[in-house]
Amino acid sequence: MTRRDATYQIHAPDPAEIEAMTGLVLLDFGTNWCGHCTTARGPVDAWLDAHADVDLVRVEDGPGRKLGRTYRVKLWPTLVLLRDGREIARVVRPRGLRDLQSLAMAFG
């Protein structure tokens, strides 16, 4: 997936693929029809623009979706920031850039 991919992708990577990724990766779990996800998309994309060293994996979540269950996603959107495949921060239902500050604080 590219960092400019605005839609949640139906086909998610396997959890082992995510764990094998190096560097900073933001997992964005949600759905394209979710109002909370639509509201958060602008601030999340703006945050990503300001943090060019963070890659994005935007994945559609729902019942039976393995990747979302692996990361214990319960509400959308859920953002999970990984460094070298390990979770270092999480934000649930961000509404603006202020809600995303904890992500940047997690990696300095």
Features:
single chain; 108 residues; alpha+beta; Glutaredoxin; 4-stranded mixed beta sheet; 4 helices; 4 strands; 31% helix; 25% strand
* Total strands: 4
CATH architectural label: 3-Layer(aba) Sandwich
- CATH fourth-tier homologous superfamily: Glutaredoxin
The value of Rg in angstroms is 12 Å
Supply the CATH class. Answer: Alpha Beta
Please state the overall shape, judged from the principal axes of the Cα atoms.
globular
Number of domains: 1
Strand content: 25-35%
Distance between the termini: 25 Å
Spatial arrangement of strands, main beta sheet: 2-1-3-4
Helical residue percent band: 25-40%
How many H/I helical runs? Answer: 4
* Helix/strand structural class: alpha+beta
Instruction: Provide the low-confidence segments as ranges.
Output: none
Kindly report the average pLDDT value. Answer: 92
CATH topology: Glutaredoxin
**Largest sheet, described in full?**
4 strands, mixed
Which sequence of SSEs, written as H and E, runs from N to C?
A: HEHEHEEH
Structure description:
- There is one protein chain.
- The protein has 108 residues and is of the alpha+beta class.
- The protein has a single domain, classed as Glutaredoxin (3-Layer(aba) Sandwich).
- It has helices spanning 15-20, 35-50, 66-70, 101-106, and strands at residues 24-30, 54-60, 78-83, 86-92.
- A 4-stranded mixed sheet has the order 2-1-3-4.
